[in-house]
Design goal:
alpha/beta; 120 residues; 5 strands
């Protein structure tokens, strides 16, 4: 299975990508593509949420972090948390998972305005 088959997969740079919610099998493709960190930005009660996602990711030797962001109301604190985390893993290949494309676009625009070094 190719990583590009994950819903809303978007390669942002050599080190950062974004996607919709992968299914359990797709996490294997994520690991095989060389990603080291999965950042889940979805709320725990989101459609298609996988309660054991952290276990699935870490069982594939990737790190997992969950930063719940309400899709209808992302705010500056969510962005600050995300940016702070990303600054700490600048040497890792990361994939963030979002179910709503508008949240990804909003975060990407905000990140570009901050001048965050990891966005290329």
């Amino acid at each position: 299975m190719a990583i590009e088959n994950i819903i809303n997969y978007l390669r942002i740079s050599d080190r950062i990508a974004s996607s919709g919610q992968p299914d359990e099998a797709q996490f294997k493709a994520i690991a095989q593509a060389g990603f080291q960190v999965v950042i889940n930005l979805a709320m725990p009660n989101s459609d298609h949420a996988i309660p054991e996602e952290g276990y699935i990711v870490t069982a594939r030797k990737m790190s997992y972090v969950h930063i719940p962001v309400p899709f209808d109301a992302p705010d500056a604190e969510h962005l600050k948390t995300f940016v702070g985390f990303m600054e700490g893993v600048q040497d890792k290949k990361c994939l963030d998972t979002l179910c709503r494309q508008q949240t990804c676009v909003g975060f990407s625009l905000s990140l570009s305005k901050t001048g965050a070094r990891f966005v290329t």
